[in-house]
């Protein structure tokens, strides 16, 4: 009977193990589902909408086949459509039935008005030709008077992309895109984009019963082996004929040598029947355990029931975006990449003193002071190199919540190694332009930043004439210049926090020192005067959470030295910078030197009890000239 049960156990174990293995092999379905995208019309770009990638749940894998280089990038759908607004491309979307639809999108020529001055302004993105900041190599050639693109441009390196990929012949990219993002596929922007494109998703084909089936089969196999061993032992114990009477044992002579050996403690090397049967039993159990171990080693986590519930993340405090607010201009990862590229480009420009290269990533006052610095460094060896544009670690990011152009981003980078903390404003003029830094200033160690919206929400840009701040951004530079010129006699003196204003203290100390030195030798024949005026650049203001704003402005400090005697003249001594910038070492009319101050303020909202606080500033020589 033991053999019968052993056979039953073996049969059941085989069935269970085979069933478990079959679930992981022949009965297991496909691991992915793939959607083929058939592109029939040749175009330099293919834009795949985020709805296509989210047709099925889970991560997405993009595949594109073509000869040569293949480029892919993803970003916000609205940004990509704006970048493609002036060119022909294939648009891949989902129709009402959930099927993939591919359509060719042609650029719309701009409307031509008889009277150009009467043409109304629109919110549509400008073409690359309409913006001076657009890089010349990225501007597509157009047919005369039509605006239709006839040549492409390279999509690589655009600041609009959140990430990009480039591979040869076969491109495979693993993505996890939300519906509001899309993917751009191209070759080089001129050749037709790949036509063999597919998107695949993983399919949940776990086999939670495979592990238990194999485990139960291994247990039954072990039980069968055990029953089989018991059956063998039982047969051995009961071997020989069975009769009614007890058999008479055969009388054999006693082996005296064996008895003497046992009495002396000698152990025979011949194993007994009990030891032989025990070793065989142990040996027979080993195969069952080994088979179970081998089978279990091939079982993945999805071969077992998942009894532990998925962990639920604990709620965290969030800031809710106002209703109707646009998405932020950049993400944090995107801003870090842009800042890294700006930092590298400006560092190369500083080393080679290449103003044209610097102009690809700088604009406004940030570019103007570097152009002056390059001229001075080329002529004067002891002229200091400008502070580098820091790019990491990015401590604060405040992007403008806007989906049009131009758009701006404010960032604070605090580098503990160099003990420098800078605040910058960078702007993008249109979809085809790169971000350029227009204002850069150094933050003081004790600077207290106002409460700002998180980077994933962004902030609205405050209009220059906004009446909701303590002072309108367009009037801030004028008011601060008046405070520097008139100190406590200025009508705006009470608006500014004097305790945190390190720039005003620095300007006052510098002027007092220079005036004292000038009066020692030149007070009888000349005069040194100082004045401050607002800069010509437009202010940039981004809103804070307390209804205030961070405002970046520029002011210009003017130093003028003139002769007071008709027979006297001003001779430059110990001022090689002014001599180099003017090309003169003396003048009968005098010299004027300009310094540019890039200043960041926190301006509270109307009704606040706070005052305007200085956050940071940067001061550099801007130019010099002979007074006419």
From TrEMBL:
InterPro entries: DUF8094 (IPR058407)
GO MF assignments: transferase activity
Residues passing through the membrane, by range: 213-235, 282-304
Keyword Ribosomal protein: no
Keyword Transmembrane belongs to the record: yes
Bias (Low complexity): 118-138
Protein name listed in UniProt: Glycosyl transferase
Annotated region described as Disordered, given as residue ranges: 112-143
Species the sequence originates in: Microbacterium marmarense
Alphabetized UniProt keyword annotations: Membrane, Transferase, Transmembrane, Transmembrane helix
Domain of life per record: Bacteria
Pfam families for the chain: DUF8094
Domain (DUF8094) ranges: 328-625
